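User: Sequence in, structure out. Go.
Assistant: Echoing your sequence, followed by the structure tokens.
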Amino acid sequence: MAKLVVRERPAAGEPAGLLILHHGRGADELDLLGLADALDPARRLHVAAPRGPLRLPGSPGYHWYRVPRVGYPDAASFHAAYDDLAAVHDSLWEHTTIEPSRTVLGGFSMGSVMSYALGLAPLRPAPAGILAFSGFIPVVEGWRPSPADRPGLRAFIAHGRRDPVIEVGFARRARDELQAAGLDVSYHESDAAHHIDPAQVPLAGAWLQSTLGPGEMPDGGRAQASERR
């Protein structure tokens, strides 16, 4: 049974896939639903947005884990969130009947970290892709990424060179690690700070459509798919 609060946005017709969006530090499950509309304006996808499990004293919103040092999550809170989020993903796959292979895990900042964590874990089902805005592949005791185990996984990484919270070197290291494992990585930098650069959203939307393919539209037609790179 999934423990986390989850908000869902159904597809307009038969869904082409599932997009799970994980919010950043101090936000909630509603934070990225507007991004879902920008990424998927035709509502081809079923979208789900879970809420992080932690409330921290003196900090607004919800969190996925405690942060003793950027790049290195607190192990206890990370693993608790990981287990709860894995249960959410399993529940979504069961009740939507959309397979992991038709799912993209995405997020911003701390939410990107959880997307990497669940998407690259060797004991978890491999998704179709990871959509990472301003995040990093975590270094945490008891968890290691295993990108070589999922050769078909694609990644879209976007990061700002002026990010004062998570410096752009984290994104470059993630790109290099995934490319070294032979994965298809679409990498984008801009002069943004710690936010989602609006200029990157259309690129991410095109990548999302090419990753999950065309879906049935309510009128019986099919969405136009972008060319797969």
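User: And one key feature?
Assistant: The chain is about 30% helix and 20% strand.
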